Amino acid sequence: MIVLGIESSCDETGIALYDSEKGLLAHTLHSQIELHAQYGGVVPELASRDHIHRAIPLIEEVLQQARIKKSDIGGVAYTAGPGLIGALLVGASIGRSIAYGLGIPSVEVHHMEGHLLAPMLEERQPEFPFVALLVSGGHTMLVDVEGVGEYKILGESLDDAAGEAFDKTAKMLGLGYPGGPILAQAAEAGDPHIYKFPRPMTNRPGLDFSFSGLKTFSLNTWNKSNKSEQDRANVARAFQDAVVDTLAIKCKRAMEQTGHNTLVLAGGVSANQGLRQKLAQTAEQQEFKLFYPRPEFCTDNGAMIAYTGYLRLHSDNNSGLDFNARPRWNIEQNR
Ligand code: KG4
Ligand code: ZN
C-alpha cells in the first residue's frame, strides 16, 4: 500500500509517499523560515496561509518524483496535533478531502509519534523496546516505548522545551531565527572552559527537565561580558554544553531505570552534533545502542508522518468527512 503523508503542524509543509513494499518513494518539504524571519519567530496566521498555497503543488511534486498516479495512493496520513491549530487544520482538511475524493482511508497522526518512529525510516532500525529522547521546539520528553502505540512518558520538560530554549537564547544573543542551528554554529567557535552553566534538575531524582533558567543564565552572562563575537560564541557554547549534558545525564538515568539497551534520539534538536557526540560517548560507556534519523528527518518532515500513518492505517482509519485537529495531545493517549 502507498501512503501519502502530510505534515503541517508548524512552519514546514512536508509531503511524502511511503510504500509498504518499497519503503520511502519520495519526499519534499517547504520551509517557511524566510517568511517568519523578519518577525523573529513563527506567526501562526501566516503559517496557515502558506501551508494552503504549498500543500497541493508539493503533493503533485512527490507524485511526479515517485512516477505514480493519484489513483495509486492507498491511504492518507496527516498530522492532527499537537501544533498550531490553523496550520493543523490545513493538513487535516486537505488530507481528509483527498481520501474522500479517492475513496481511500485516512488516518490522524500524532506529530511526536512521527518523530519517535522517524529512525525506522533508516536502514539500521532500532528494535523494541527502547527509550526515546524526543527533543523538539515544542516538546522535550523521555518515553518508554514497548511497541508502536505503547508509550509511557518517563519525564518531560516542566517549562521550555529544549528547542524552545535554543531559540529564545539565540534571540537574546542576537543570533536570529531559527535559533537552534544558528546557536549550534556559533557554539563551535566558543571556548568550553570560560563559563560553566548549571545542569538543571540533575542533582535530584527523576526524569523531568527544566530549561528556562538556562536562558536567564545566558542573558545575565552575556550582559556582564564585553559582548564581543568571542563572548557570544563562549556563551552559546556554555549554553549548548549545559543542555546537552543535562539531556545525557537524564538519558543515562532512563536507561538504568527501564533496563532497556536501546536509546532512540529524535526531534529537531537531535540534529545537534554536540548532542549526538555526547550521547554516542554515553552509549559507549554504558553499553547501550544509539539510533537517530538522518538530519532532514530529525526536524519536521512528511516522511515520518507517511510512515507512522502506514503503521496506523490498518488499526484505526476514518474515511468520513469529519475531522479533528488537536493543538494539545498527549502521546500516551493517542489511541
Ligand atoms: O522537531 P522540530 O522540527 O519541530 C517541532 O516539532 O517543534 O524542531 C524544531 C526545533 C527548533 O527549536 C530548532 O531550533 C531546533 O529544533 N533545532 C536545533 C537544531 N536544529 C533544529 N537545535 C539545536 N541544534 C540544532 N542543530
Ligand atoms: Zn516536530
Structure description:
The protein has 335 residues and is α/β, with parallel strands linked by helices. It has helices at 33-37, 44-66, 85-102, 111-117, 162-172, 179-188, 212-224, 229-258, 273-286, 295-298, 303-313, and strands at 2-7, 12-19, 23-31, 73-81, 106-110, 130-135, 140-147, 150-156, 262-266, 289-291. The chain has two domains: 2-116 and 297-333, ATPase, nucleotide binding domain (Nucleotidyltransferase, domain 5, 2-Layer Sandwich), CATH 3.30.420.40; 127-292, Nucleotidyltransferase, domain 5 (2-Layer Sandwich). It contains eleven helices and ten strands. Strand 7 and strand 8 form a beta hairpin. It is globular. The mean pLDDT is 96. It binds 5'-O-[(R)-(carboxyoxy)(hydroxy)phosphoryl]adenosine and zinc ion. Zinc ion binds at residues 111, 115, 136, 267-268, 300.
Which features does this protein show?
335 residues; alpha/beta; Nucleotidyltransferase, domain 5; 2 domains; five-stranded mixed beta sheet; 11 helices; binds 5'-O-[(R)-(carboxyoxy)(hydroxy)phosphoryl]adenosine
Short description:
This protein is of the alpha/beta class and 335 residues long. The protein has eleven helices and ten strands. It has helices at 33-37, 44-66, 85-102, 111-117, 162-172, 179-188, 212-224, 229-258, 273-286, 295-298, 303-313, and strands spanning 2-7, 12-19, 23-31, 73-81, 106-110, 130-135, 140-147, 150-156, 262-266, 289-291.
